[in-house]
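User:
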Amino acid sequence: MSACAGMFLPVFAWGETDVNIDNPLAECVDIHPVHRQEMDNLTILKTTVTLKKSTGECGCFSTLINYTSLLAQDVEGYGRGSAYSLQEGNISLAKMQGRYPFSFVLSVDNQSVRDQKLALMIRCTPPL
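Assistant: Predicted structure:
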């Protein structure tokens, strides 16, 4: 598995609301938050993603990375049955090089998360 250390970066928007980014793949894939916004019913985190080196060098078995958004208070309990994800997906880095914009959908129901601190977790996608 990867020797990359996890990083939490707060993203401040709308007063006290923020998004923590947990990215143990930061040595390979840098995710720089630009801003959090609401669009219709969605809560979106706009970012700039920089591919620094192959995700294989950070322990991933493919060019797919997984993201999960959840309430920040639930990060510790995620995977242990005491938290649930708001949104989850895979991102293909196969044809991407350098730096590019990317928008993460954090929630499809922005009314339920409007005043909540959120977290975005980045992980290797498990082997298919």
